[in-house]
Specification:
There is one protein chain. The protein is 41% helix and 8% strand. It contains four helices and four strands; from the N terminus they run βαβααβαβ. It has a two-stranded parallel ribbon with strand order 1-4. It has a two-stranded antiparallel sheet with strand order 2-3.
């Protein structure tokens, strides 16, 4: 049984990123405790730094949709799924990238 798809409405002017690679590195730098994963608080802080509204709710939804092993953290191998979810749901717009480009 799959997880239900839940998301918040798109923002009119979402934050902009110049490339997926730079966005991925920005998320990686959010790992403040150095354990190689983004926990809930770290991911919420990354969203806040990006200017994503309702960052608490969006953090929960993003983790719910990208966390493959159910530990409520985003590890390196789950980062692509997280970025894909954020881009598809309008949390962030990547300039100069194809809309259907896989992170």
């Amino acid at each position: 049984m799959g997880r239900p798809v839940v998301h918040l409405p798109r923002r009119r002017n979402p934050p902009l990123a110049d490339s997926i690679a730079n966005l991925k590195e920005f998320f990686r730098r959010g790992d403040t405790n150095g354990d190689g994963r983004l926990n809930w608080a770290e991911l919420e802080h990354v969203f806040q730094r990006l200017g994503v509204p309702a960052s608490g709710w969006r953090t929960i939804l993003a983790i719910h949709n990208a966390d493959e092993n159910g530990d409520w953290c985003i590890s390196e191998h789950e980062l692509d799924a997280l970025l894909k979810y954020c881009i598809e749901h309008g949390y962030i717009v990547v300039m100069g990238e194809q809309k259907n480009h896989e992170p």
